Amino acid sequence: MVAICNHHNVGTSNLGQVLRKMAQAEVNLDHDIPLLALQPCWAKTVVGLFSFICFANSYNGDFVFDDSEAIINNKDLRAETPLDDLWYHDFWGSKLSSNTSHKSYRPLTVLTFRINYHLAGGFHPLGFHVINILLHCIISVLIVDVFSILLGGLQYSNKGRRLNLVPKSSLLAALLFAVHPIHTECIAGIVGRADLLCTLFFLLSFLVYCRAFKESKEGTNFSTAWILLSVLLGATAMLCKEQGITILGLNALFDGVVINKLNILEVVLKIVRKDKSLESLVVFRKGLLFRMALLLSGGATMLYVRWRIMGTGPPAFTEVDNPASFADSIFVRAINYNYYYSLNAWLLLCPWWLCFDWSMGCVPLIKSVSDWRIITLAILWFCLIALMCQALCSEDSRKRRILTLGLGFLIIPFLPASNLFFRVGFVIAERVNYLPSIGYCMLITYGFSLLSKQTKKKKLLVAAVLGVLLINVWRCIIRSNQWRSEEHLFRSALSVCPLNAKVHYNVGKNLADKGNQTAAISYYREAVRLNPKYVHAMNNLGNILKERNELHEAEELLSLAVQIQPDFAAAWMNLGIVQNSLRRYQEAEQSYWTAIRHRRKYPDCYYNLGRLYADLNRHVDALNAWRNATVLKPQHSLAWNNMIILLDNTGNLAQAEAVGREALELIPNDHSLMFSLANVLGKSQKYKESEALFHKAIKANPTAASYHGNLAVLYHRWGNLDLAKKHYEISLKLDPTAAGTRENYSLLKRKLDQLQKKDDV
């Protein structure tokens, strides 16, 4: 409902009486709610404070889960990547035109990551987390105004100030939103910034659309400029995350239901019956068709531009990402999609079992009507149909409006994640419920108002609501703490999704990164058991077994991985390393080249290929392979080092020196390169320069016994015997088992003894 309260006219027209009655009707929603009615500024302060308390403890969390790919490994965050590339790359930094791209186009979100990276001077998660927390607080404050419009209607005073006719209801709905635990992934997980930014501009678009009717009387006048600004903000929301485009549909729904006060069922019936009285509806008298044309043309333009940028190819997902979408039977697909909807609804209603990933067996497919889980589908659709019937058929216009908008905000933003229009890359993703939870909180608040009206035990009801809010706050604090580190996040999922192979894989990977290989092996084995086609688990398990010299089992696992996924370049490379260790050099070389064929820019594979050629004394081929590695990755220290050492060992000191100097220009603080070049300079009798490099290397890594030992050799050759003795002793103290150093030290001591005897004579 939209109206202007003008006290100069209400006494001389029927319009004033109508407005008073309508305003009184809206107040009734708050009338029976046993909560305090706060001033707008205090209400927003309370909501903002609660939203901050819930997630504040995530401020000093690490980069976790998808943050690694979207932020740490995303070259679009670095200054050397042109800003223009952001408009042609997906969320993960890959080209949108690539067959492997997920087609997630969110350039504005990536731009904020880039700004974070620049301001922090690197990958420091603190700033990233603080921005996410602040964004949620801002959204929670804004949503007080949104709920006041959705629940209480759109009215302005004669001074042009928007009236909040339902301060209690809007406060309760905003609190329910601010402290909902399902939001934790969006806030504590940095990649959730996409959902936060999208929601921010989504809400601004809605509020600006409402602002277009500030000077309107019954919707007859409106500002086209504000409508166009609303469309622009909708486009901005879409550039943060794809869901943003759905605000255009919700603005259209709001226009019809609130601005034009249409009875949707009545309009549909008149259209079906081709009733001539349709022309008399307000739809033609209040500019609705013109506004719908603006919204539709804006949405079509957004989709067209997006289509041109990303190309016509669909996103590349695998069966493990979304198994239901790969089912052969339409029945199985439909049943499981609806089951996923029921699980999302349950997570909104009872956000207790939360998991960072719901794929890979976490939600087994329903393949038969005898599966008891079908009951949840029936419950979901029974509730939805009941709400829809009330939204369409109720004689109470306020109920129709609130239920229609509540269902609209619940369902429409969820449509891009529903698998109805295109396949998505997940089974359930808690983050996609950030926007739909607006509709959920609205419906729950309306239900609470109806319950308050019916019950006499209002204190008990208030206690229950406060209990729910406090439990949600506690759950948010616990859950955001789990998101602070990968170890806690992954382990928290074991009890929720014990059948999820990816959960076991991630726990194993986290343990392996910390050096606990024995425990990691058991989790990797469980991941492979749960999903016998899980090639990434096979690859990582094979790697650990290779390091433990269990080469035959490692070869079996890696061979199976490349058999299942022939283009898995990393597995081919690791298979080559195992075959090289087994001295099956020809097979190893073939595996390396297969890996390079599937991933042309693969510096690590060229490095390992060079090691193979070095073992075979194919020195020119080894140098070429290592040179390729450094061309593809100029910071590849190991490849540079091996080139220097090989040239040194083959007597090509001048060339070794040139390569060493080139390497240090690119990686000036690498102590291993300083050490290798110092050895070359020492053999070339450039003692002063060699000494300086040895000291720089020792300063960077003072506990390296070989650095002290080789500096001692340099002093030994140079004739600085006392310094040689000093560094031999330091080296042997650091590594008493170094036979070469001990032998050189013995030679030096004999020489010193001889010199002492001569002096005595």
TrEMBL record:
GO biological process terms, semicolon-separated: endoplasmic reticulum unfolded protein response
One Gene Ontology cellular component: endoplasmic reticulum
GO molecular function, one term: dolichyl-phosphate-mannose-protein mannosyltransferase activity
Chief location of this protein within or outside the cell: endoplasmic reticulum
InterPro entries named among the record's database cross-references: O-mannosyl-transferase_TMTC, TMTC_DUF1736, TPR-like_helical_dom_sf, TPR_rpt
Location(s) in or outside the cell: Endoplasmic reticulum; Membrane
Keywords: Endoplasmic reticulum, Membrane, Repeat, TPR repeat, Transferase, Transmembrane, Transmembrane helix
Top EC class for this record: transferase
Pfam families given in the database record: TMTC_DUF1736, TPR_16, TPR_19
Record pathway: Protein modification; protein glycosylation
Keyword Nucleotide-binding in record: no
EC number, UniProt record: 2.4.1.109
Gene3D superfamilies: Tetratricopeptide repeat domain
All copies of domain DUF1736, residue ranges: 313-385
Membrane topology listed for this record: Multi-pass membrane protein
TPR repeats: 501-534, 535-568, 603-636, 671-704, 705-738
Transmembrane parts of this sequence: 133-153, 165-184, 190-210, 222-239, 288-307, 374-393, 402-422, 434-452, 459-475
Keyword Oxidoreductase: no
Family: Belongs to the TMTC family.
Descriptive protein name: dolichyl-phosphate-mannose--protein mannosyltransferase
